[in-house]
Give the backbone structure.
Amino acid sequence: MLFADPLFGLPSWVDAVIRVVIVILVMTLVVVYLTVGERWVVARFQQRLGPRKTGPGGILQGFADALKLVTKEDIRPTNADRWVFELAPYATFIPVLMTLIVLPFAKDWGVRNLALGLFYVFAVLGLNIVGIMMAGLGSGNKYALLGGVRAAAQMISYEIPLVISLLCVVMITGADMGGGVGTLNLNVIAALQEDRPYIVLQPLAFLIFFTAMLSELHRAPFDIPVAESEIVGGYFVEYSGIRWSMFQLTEYASMWGFSVFGSVVFLGGWAWPFGVDAHWTVQLGTTLVKSLAFIIAIMWMRVTVPRLRIDQLMNFSWKVLLELSFLQLIVNGFILLYDWPQELLALTSGIGAVVLIALIIRHSTAKASKGLVGTYRTLGSTPQ
Amino acid sequence: MATEVLWWIFAAAIVGASAGVVFSRSVLHSAIFLIGSMAGVGAMYVFLTVEFLALVQFLIYGGAVTVLILLALMLTRSDPTGRPEPVNGPQLPFALLVGISLITILVAVALDTAWGDSGEGPANIAIETVSERMFSDFGVPFVLSSVLLLVALIGAIILARQEEGE
């Protein structure tokens, strides 16, 4: 399969620059509409109208917000470490922008088609945390520092289940390509799902991916690094104006990037259900609808589930998600090694997914423990 | 030609960032320069067309090791801002010893090597080859090293738990 030939026979690097510029412009537009779209969706869930006055139906609200943010004063605290503070928003944003380069939006519609696309995404996204920690350390503010520490701890914990759940899918691509070696190429992964998306075969891996993704995005219920009521906004508490809006841009751009990425790996990307040879408008529309579904699900989680405490967050990652993802990996290995039918994959993973959901429901409906809970228990047991 | 120019730019960036690690007055700045230096080395791997190694470099050194350093900085320093700190102490003679011996070894090796232009471009290694070598040809060393890492992990957990219990 050949993907991403240079446009109009241009030199490779000119073609790359054009594609990157298009992706950046689309990303800006998407982010502007995601900020206002989130307010609409949340308003719908809370039975109110949301912003409806700017332009017909409120469609210009996002641009009004952007204009306000750009013209706001950019304040730097005297206590801050100047260069670390000023470069932190860029260090946060650039990795997210770099991941957008490998995402296939339709057949041939991506900036570059890398053989290691999937690995590239999580290798580069790992650098994101450096900018967040720079913001936390450079602000000279205790709340920002706490936010940075929380973000780092959370990111390190949830990266493992995230990567393992993606590896489960990569294992199956090997079987789909005639046994043996799988692929990390996102375009090929999408094309292999022409008949059925991998969410059918790997519902447990999908659930783990979705949970870990929420955590990586710092979205509710895993938003403790940016929790407003606890640490007044977390690592970007000292930022204002254009630098603050760069953090927002990062948040929404990575939300969009993750949605496209998740829909390519688990929901069949541009290939399912209309096939590899469908017209590019159909494929682009498919990606759009799937990533929109992802984004709505993320917002739905935000308005439904209350925020976790930090010890619950760590326990959930290390004691539930990690084990289940390893289990999924090992079960997949056995089934693929002995060439058992793929229905078995769907069955075992489905059972796992049901177990995970049952665990969550049982835990959340259980009676609250009396007295001091969580990390406070060890403190409380010492003599006063 | 363009690659060569880019190579020199990145080489200068790596040297500059590494000098920044050594000469900056604040530990925080050193850590951030270290990330820059590591990322530059990763870019060098791209020029050698070993993309897999480049991504591993970003993931391990850019994303994991430096995050560990920054996390340690966050948790241990009494003054979390990036103010300059005096960089001297009882470790000075040891640092000198290690530094000078490392430089001696590197210079000796560099002088001893016959640098020649082999005339061959770097060969692209497919990730399938890497995995084949790792999981089939060197399967036993791979398993042994993972056991070693697991033991280290469990040991770290045991040490951390003991501290908490007291």
The interface with chain B takes residues 79-81, 83-84, 114-116, 119-120, 122-124, 126-127, 129-130, 133-134, 136-138, 140, 142, 145, 148-149, 152-153, 155-156, 181, 184, 378 of chain A (CB under 8 Å). The two ends of chain A are 70 Å apart (CA to CA).
